[in-house]
Amino acid sequence: MVSRVIPVDAFDLVIFGGTGDLAKRKILPGLYRRFWAGQMPAESRIIGAARADLDDAGFRKLVADAIDEFVSQDKRDEAMIAQFLERISYVSIDATGTGGWDQLKAMMRSGVVRAFYFSVAPALFGAIAERLSSNGIADSESRIVVEKPFGRDLASAQALNATLAAHFAERQIYRIDHYLGKETVQNLMAVRFANILFEPIWKAQYIDHVQITVAETVGVEGRGAYYDKSGAMRDMVQNHMMQLLCLIAMEPPYHFDPNAVRDEKLKVIRALDPVAPQDIVRGQYLAGGGQGGYIEHSENPASRTESYIAMKVHISNWRWAGTPFYLRTGKRMRARASEIAIVFKEPPHSIFDHASGWRENQLVIRLQPNEGMNLMVMIKEPGPGGMRLVQVPLDMSFADALGEEGADIPDAYERLIMDVIRGNQTLFMRGDEVEAAWAWADPIIEGWEGRGEKPQGYDPGSSGPDDALMLMHRDGRRWREIRE
Ligand code: NAP
Predict the structure, then answer these.
(1) Phi-psi region of 162 (alpha: psi -120 to 50; beta: other; left: phi over 0)
(2) What is the three-class DSSP state of 336?
(3) CA 50–ligand 1 middle distance (angstroms)
(4) Which of 160, 330, 375, 456 could cross-link 394 (Cys pair, CB 3.0–4.6 Å)?
(5) CB neighbours (10 Å) of residue 297?
(6) Residues with Cβ within 8 Å of residue 443, at least 6 apart in sequence
(7) Terminus-to-terminus CA distance in the chain, angstroms?
(8) Whose CA is nearest to atom 4 of ligand 1?
(9) In testing the pocket of ligand 1, which one of 51, 90, 104, 416 has its CB within 8 Å of the most ligand atoms?
């Protein structure tokens, strides 16, 4: 298949926090891969900014090391890396100080896209936004990219939005949720709105329920103190899983346009019901397999923060009334697997005996590993001896279907950074969306805090607490097995 990489406009991208973990693991290697693929024009510049006293050569060394560590061997070409590094420079800046801003201003060029990636703690967003604007470094066409977490409740998200709005218009603000940069997540929209097949049955009348699972095998060791202030609800559900839920549940936007798409997502969030306490299960992983449990990793013996959550969510609108969405996410689970399963209802009348192997149709969208989709359908089991049914997958693995290009799926970050340069906000969260998601999440969190509830322990390498199984069983349903 012919490559369809379309170069973006030339840009100056400043990465505040350019020496940090996210920059080294995702942003800088991702930019190199886009350069390697021919999408980043040669006239573009990347400027690292942090307090560390580095010169250009020192920062280039850091970037070269990051490429070495995080870019696959087949894309590490010496000549290409050298050309990429020529486009890299560094300025030492304290976000809260006065030094370095004149130097940064002098480095910026006119006639290219200006983007500023805030890969720093959210407490610094305001200081950087204010200085970019008061020093005349950002103009009315410049873009800023802000990382998660975007607030820890509605009040802090509103304050953050107000701080950014004091210096930048909403059309300039790109709030990253890297789940939206995943190929399969965008494919959800393509499958729903570019085919006649699914949309007519995409409703409560035909869909029994939806399961969204994000399971990780890692624990919180190394960042337990940070995680303990957040927990699975704030870290995963309010943002990433909410975005997945929106893309499954939203009405067709009138056009694939940033505000049209985000308007529809916002309507879904506003239609979410409060979640009853009996529809929530929270867990904490126990010690096992030679490793400490959540309590040891969080360094907080009295911690009531959840490393696992499962919940049943209802959307009060015509399309979804009566069809629950079950969400679950956890750490130290049996496998690393993220998927969405749309589980369809039984046919209205069966001419076959159900005992002969009937199972419900499912559309399974795999986010990781092996991005792709599977449609589980019933067919006749081959062979003589009567009509026995068997469920088989119609496998739509992108790597198989699209050859090399399908296998070479760009990382979510590199795709989203290119969208920033293109000026396309479709895959970024709008301020009102984030606030609506917190307005839904806040009372749920306040509820269990007010009731003083402790999460249940669950074994590492398991599927989570037993009560999470009960959440489904009592509705006559079952979770899909968590497996890679
Ligand atoms: P990190 O490793 O701690 O890096 C922080 C960066 O900010 C460093 O480059 C640091 O360099 C710089 N910095 C700190 N204080 C500064 C100041 N006053 N002025 C200028 N620069 C300053 O953090 P990170 O993991 O890269 O995370 C960055 C942001 O991304 C955070 O908001 C985080 O929540 C978010 N995020 C990270 C990940 C991830 O996988 N790491 C994933 C999702 C979201 P100096 O100390 O030299 O100044």
Answers:
(1) alpha
(2) coil
(3) 9
(4) 375
(5) 25
(6) 274
(7) 28
(8) 20
(9) 51
CB atoms within 10 A of CB 401: 11
Q: Are the C-beta atoms of residues 193 and 199 closer than 8 Å to each other?
A: yes
CA 68 – CA 46 distance, rounded (Å):
18
Q: Is 386 left (phi over 0), alpha (psi -120 to 50) or beta?
A: left
> CB 134: neighbour CB atoms within 10 A?
11
| Choice from 28, 118, 119 to test ligand 1 binding pocket (greatest atom count within 8 A of CB) | 119
Segment 233-269, tens digit of pLDDT:
999 999 999 999 999 999 999 999 999 999 999 999 9
Ligand 1 atom with minimal separation from the 16 CA? 21
Q: What span, in angstroms and rounded, lies between the C-alpha atoms of 224 and 194?
A: 43
Whether residue 319 is annotated as binding a ligand: the answer is no
Instruction: Return the sign of the alpha-carbon dihedral for residues 28, 31, 36, 37.
Output: positive
Q: What is the pLDDT of residues 344-394, one digit of tens each?
A: 999 888 888 766 778 899 999 999 887 888 999 998 888 887 788 889 999
Beta strands 372-380; 362-368: pairing state? antiparallel
Cα–Cα distance, 139 to 132 (Å, whole number): 9
- Which one of the listed residues 167, 209, 240, 314 is annotated catalytic? 240
Closest Cα to atom 44 of ligand 1: 148
The answer to whether 209 is a known catalytic residue is no
Angle formed by the axes of helices 56-70 and 28-36, to 10°?
80
Please tell me the distance from the alpha carbon of residue 118 to that of residue 16, in angstroms, as a whole number: 5
Among candidates 31, 85, 79, 25, which has minimal Cα distance to 60? 85
For range 40-47, the mean pLDDT: 96
Ligand 1 centre distance from Cα of residue 66 (Å): 15
Q: Please report the pLDDT score of residue 1 as a whole number.
A: 45
d(CA 109, CA 200): 51
